[in-house]
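Let's practice the habit of predicting before peeking. Look at the sequence and jot down your guess about where helices and strands might fall. Then scroll down.
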Amino acid sequence: MVKFEKEFLLGAATAAHQVEGNNIYSDCWAQENMEFSDYVEPSGKAVDHYHRFEEDIRLMAEAGLNAYRFSIEWARIEPEQGRFDDNEIAHYRDVLKCCRAYGIEPIVTMHHFSSPMWLIRQGGWENEETIGYFADYCKYVIEQLGDEINFVCTINEANMGLQLSAIIEKYMKIMNATDRTTAADDGKNVESHVQVGMNLGMMNQMKRKAEENRRLFGMEQPHVFLSDRTKEGDMLVIRAHQAAKAAMKAVKPSLQVGITLSLHDVQSVPGGEARASEEWDAEFGHYLPYIIEDDFFGIQNYTRSVYGADGIEPNPRDARITQMDYENYPEALEHVIRRVNKELPIPLIVTENGIATSDDEEREIFILKALEGVKRCMEEGIPVRGYCYWSLLDNFEWAKGFSMTFGLIEVDRNTMNRQPKKSLKTLGGCRV
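Done guessing? Here is the structure:
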C-alpha cells in the first residue's frame, strides 16, 4: 500500500450545503424547493453534519486522516446584506476547534457553489459589486476565525460556470435533433462530462421555471454560481478571488490562500488535438495570469475527457462507468497533476478526487490507484502537499439529490446513523 509522510495532508472533503442541512438563506435552498425545480429532491436536513460534525471529525481521526476540507456557508454568516450572525461564527469556531482537538488540519473553502439569496437578487455572479461583497465576507470570517485557519480556498471550482455554459449549449443543440430517442441518449452523454451533479432533463420546463424565478429572484434567469456564465462573469469570479485573497491576507499575512478548478484529464485521438488544446485553455490555461502568485492551487479531478475531430468522444465501450456516468479512470489525477505543475510551479493540493459507486471495493481500488499516481509525482519533485477525497459522507449531490454515493461514510437518512465504509480505513492507512 502507498504511504505518505505524517506531514502530508491526507483527508476528505465536504461542502456545507451538501451536508449541513437547513441552509434556508441560500439560493440553492430556494431553487431546490421551487415547484419547477431542476433538482430531483430538496436537501432538507441533508446529513445533519451541522449538528453531528464532531462525530464525523472523530471518525476521520480514528481512521488515520489528518486533514478536513470543508466550507463555511456565506448564507449562514451573512443571511441579510451587512448583517453578520455571531451565532454562526461561533458554530464554525466550534468546528475548527474540534478539528484541532482531533489532530485534523482544517482546509476552509469560503464559497462552495451556494450563495446568499440577497446576493443573487442583486445580480449575483454577473454583478460587479459581488467582488466587494465577497471580499468583505471573507475578511470578516478571517477577522473572527483566522487564528484557527491556515489554509483557505476562496472559491470552489471557479471555472464551473464556463463548463456549464459549454455543456448547456451542446445539450440544447442535441435536444433540437429530429430523432428524440437518439437525442435523449446523446444528451445523457453530454451531461456526464461536467464534474458536478446536473439534471439537464428538467430543462423542458424552462418557461414555467422562468416565471417562478421572477417571483423568487426578481429575474427570469438568476445568476447563481451554478448557472451558465458569460466571459465577463468568468473574469468577475477570478477577480473576486483576487480581492478576497488580498482582504484576508491584510488580516493574516501568513494565511495560505488558493483557488480550486474543476479539471479533466484532457486527452485527444488523431484529429482532436486542437479541440483538446482549446478545452484545456478554457478549463485552466486562461486563469494562469491571475493565480500564479497564489500560495497553492487546488486540483479537482474525477475523470478524463477525450477529444476527436468532431468533439468530445463517448466513453469507451469497455469502460467502467460510475453512478455519475463518468468513466472510472483514477489515472486521470496523476496526468492532471503533471500537466498543471508544468504550467503553474506552486504547491498543489488535491482538494477533490473521488468516485460515486455503491461498490466500496471499487472505491478502495480507485483511491489506491489515484494515490499511487500522487506518490509518483511527489517522488519526482512535484510539490503536492495534500489529498482530500470527495467525499467524507454520502451526501446531497446538487441537482441529482441523494442517489450518488461518493462517501467514505454511509449515512442512514432516517436515523442519521453513521457507518464507516472500509474505504475510510483504507485511505487513512496510507499515512506512515
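How did you do? The longest helix spans residues 231-251.
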